[in-house]
Amino acid sequence: MNAIEIRSENELDFEMASALSEDIAQRLLGDSACLSWYDKLRDHECPAGVSECHDVCEIPGYVEYAETRGAQLKVDVNQGTFVFCFRSVAEFG
């Protein structure tokens, strides 16, 4: 999975980070779907609970979930504050 790191000096909330990540995914993958995400500020992930068994693992559950479902792009906003994993819709075929 390719990874893009975004750093913003502006304070971003989840909605702004999500919109920014979706724009990047659209430019790089075309039509795409977000397979998983993590919001460090609220300590929420989607799908919920995918990191429960990953306390000692190097890869967070939300990343492994996306990787095993064909994710092609991980967008990391502000050093892990928000992380979004995407897959091209054309690849779902």
Secondary structure layout:
Layout: E1 2-6, H1 14-29, E2 32-39, E3 44-46, H2 61-67, E4 73-77, E5 82-88
Termini separation (Å)?
19 Å
Question: Strand arrangement, largest sheet?
Answer: 1-4-5-2-3
Counted beta strands:
5
Under the CATH scheme, the architecture is 2-Layer Sandwich
Work out the radius of gyration. Answer: 13 Å
Q: What's the gist of this structure?
A:
With 93 residues, this protein is α+β, with helices and mostly antiparallel strands. It is built from two helices and five strands, in the order βαββαββ.
Please tag this protein with its features.
93 residues, alpha+beta, 2 helices, 30% strand
Describe this structure as you would to a colleague.
This protein is an alpha+beta fold and 93 residues long. It has a single domain (2-88), classed as Dna Ligase, domain 1 (2-Layer Sandwich). Helices cover 25% and strands 30% of the residues. A five-stranded mixed β-sheet has the order 1-4-5-2-3, with helices on both faces. The radius of gyration is 13 Å and the shape is globular. The two termini are 19 Å apart. The relative contact order is 0.29. The mean pLDDT is 92.
